[in-house]
Write a structure and sequence with these properties.
Length: 55
């Protein structure tokens, strides 16, 4: 899973394409961008992150 905050200045969502290309083809990869969220996604949006992780 690639998880980005929409407002992340350290790792902007635009990097997702580059990061996804580095993943081996046989590994499934999902991309999620949380709106109105910065770099600390798990601290800023704990419920949304937990839901994405299946918890």
């Amino acid at each position: 899973m690639l998880l980005f905050g929409e407002e992340d200045g350290e790792t902007p969502p635009e990097r997702a394409t580059q990061m996804a290309r580095l993943r081996p083809d046989h590994l499934p990869t999902s991309l999620h961008v949380l709106p109105a969220t910065g770099h600390l996604t798990v601290l800023e949006r704990p419920a949304e992150v937990a839901a994405l992780l299946g918890g």
